[in-house]
């Protein structure tokens, strides 16, 4: 793979050193490693390891600089054929995200660069921190950071990758504290000199140690940012005021950390704010240097108090000085802590382990796309999308496939082996306020989809596709907002069946229509529930059941069979020794009661008395289903039940369900198909001869 990492600068620090070490491992394993930063002293070491460096001012927060860097980074991504863009800081993440999103490809098969972030800090909740949550995966080095990103930035847990930092233990010579024959003890602190690192707290505590153990040396390694130069002066003043300035040495930036650690008897991490991890801790532990650290952030993921180090509360100078004295005066304790710490580093915090876990994350991001399918239409429309879902699963076997469906349709996909996640589109909630639509869009965006297949083809669905920020968006450009689909196609006004219509979109993904079968997956509990229901209705086990759909969409009054027609069907079917089963929703209960009261054949009234899963099981138990063009027709086709499908205002050529045992009945009129929701004469339905319907149904009895 070709990997690009981006961070502000390559100065000495945990993030920067880790980037260089990781790059060297990438090159060792045969990958291309590219790093973009504003440069720094570690560039020479990076390039010596075989990685490539580009210098860009990605550390600047000015809008003009960010926009310029986005364009330049896009050029680098194209030039180096980058597969993964890995951002390690906030402003670079903004630049990297939009640079990666600007990459498009004429060839659909081309893999677009995947954006990944690693959170190296406990970020405040403002705009510049948000891009760290936009990664396809968000890598966190500690549990505290993972909780922070899920809780404060709403990153789904499925996108969090817990990968602790690692060190190249071969660079550190492990020596037990008791083996260091020195006349004096050396205490060290390593890190940027900023207030959050607690240097003032450290200086005050270490002064007590020096008084108790004269001759103790203190080394402070690191330098302050340009804006914090005065803080370093304050530390020196504090050390002078406490009378220990002669014992404290400020070394500034150093590249020879392993060498410096070899001369230490104790390392202190005195941070007062949340630490994302604390790389310097595992470096010290790899070298056999005992550690005292404050109980902040990810420190507790590394140190187990009194087992591989000592932990104290932040700001508590008494605790800190006491812990330091315990280790310096008890060589047995120091050796015990050092041995256990080294063992833990070898098990959990090696550079090789971190590299492998990160590469596994890259591979998953590249090879296992996250796909969103949008189909928020009626129940029957969702059933008709099953062949497309099956084809997508076959084309992308390792993908995470989610489907956005309406509230009424969500149950129909339960148990579907081709779907990993169902996202609910509550039409009532969304239409109440535009802000509710935005909430839904934001939640979809947080899922970090790589691809959206929009089968709904409305302006709203196109907008949702775009807001998802998925790099690839497929569908028909047949609405005003169709241009938001960057891989959209033109919809020709040709009458084709829905499944074929959907596969025209999938053809752009190289997926051909080979299997039109509809499928549904009623559970065992659904069949048990229906068996109980039928037994209560005195249905015999060998009795032929014929389902009759008495309802339909509330919008389509023209698709409903008249009540008198339903009564005739029930009684005529009884002459074939078949018993009618009235199916419908709770809205059809009144019609069902009317038909049951008028029909002499005592049909089974199941309208509004079953769950959706039980309805599917019931239709499967029927010998044949009689229904107008509505969802039960597609349910029957999906479970293999023969169908007598009645078409009035709609065109059978366009809406006939796939399957062999499907019989079409329609009245030939000049006005049909009209696709009217209401009609004053309704001849296409009222002029149907029930004997013709029963005759066709008898073929399957």
Automatic annotation (TrEMBL):
Stretches assigned to the Glycosyltransferase subfamily 4-like N-terminal domain: 12-170
GO cellular component: cytosol
One example GO MF annotation: ADP-heptose-lipopolysaccharide heptosyltransferase activity
Positions of transmembrane segments: none
Entry's Gene Ontology BP terms: lipopolysaccharide core region biosynthetic process
PANTHER family (UniProt xref): TETRAACYLDISACCHARIDE 4'-KINASE-RELATED (PTHR30160)
The protein, known as: Lipopolysaccharide heptosyltransferase II
Organism of origin: Candidatus Taenaricola geysiri
